[in-house]
């Protein structure tokens, strides 16, 4: 597949701080790409370098094979950008906001209705932006970034501070954007979000890319054990430790937890003992990968 975004040895310094440290990224066309990292890892700065908002100190970023810096105005109609903090024109309705962006980009006004429908704001089209909820403002911000029908969309923490329902609704919007053939680049602190939405993920910390792969490969590569949880009394702790494939078994607060790297023989043995009622199986997640690579210490 053709790479529509590439960075080569990208570096950005602020005094003694190297915020982006020789970053190499390649994003194929049509990919939903996630950039994950702790606070201050360099995610937003990396996006701003790729978008052409900031000048790199070293290296280069390319979109569609063209350098983005010096500021490449020819690329602007082909990309859409949703920043961490969005500001709207005061006292304008949803439809009026989108009309302003449509006229700035000189696109047909018919795009307004299409965008309102895409982000699910049909019943809010005459509502002023200051009266929208947080989730509705985020959806409007995404609609503004899409009004000119860009081929690539950059989304910097679009679901930050949203409640679970608003987040899930926005996920549907993001899936629809990608399903239309657009390349989507996302930063987020929500590991479940990245695991569900992204085709490919890069994890960045202290300005360096630590790894890049699919969510499934990252999780599988961790090699973490499965945990099988049973209600107390399903089998005894002693018997559980003798089951084929079980590496350890412990009883805590009425739950028997079995650890194994090979769940199939364990589940077969439990089925033979009619001990599957209420059983739960948990495996490693992208959050486990993230914490293993970046550490568990608190980052302000």
TrEMBL record:
Keywords on record: Antibiotic resistance, ATP-binding, Cell membrane, Membrane, Nucleotide-binding, Translocase, Transport
Presence of the UniProt keyword Cell cycle in the record: no
MF GO annotations: ATP binding; ATP hydrolysis activity
GO biological process: response to antibiotic
InterPro entries named in the record: AAA+_ATPase, ABC_transporter-like_ATP-bd, ABC_transporter-like_CS, ABC_transporter_ATP-binding, P-loop_NTPase
GO CC annotation terms, alphabetical: plasma membrane
Name of the molecule in the record: ABC transporter related
Record domain ABC transporter: where: 5-231
Family of this protein: Belongs to the ABC transporter superfamily.
Membrane-topology descriptor: Peripheral membrane protein
Gene3D superfamilies: P-loop containing nucleotide triphosphate hydrolases (3.40.50.300)
CDD domains registered for this protein in UniProt: ABC_DR_subfamily_A
Subcellular location: Cell membrane
Coarse class of the protein's main subcellular location: membrane
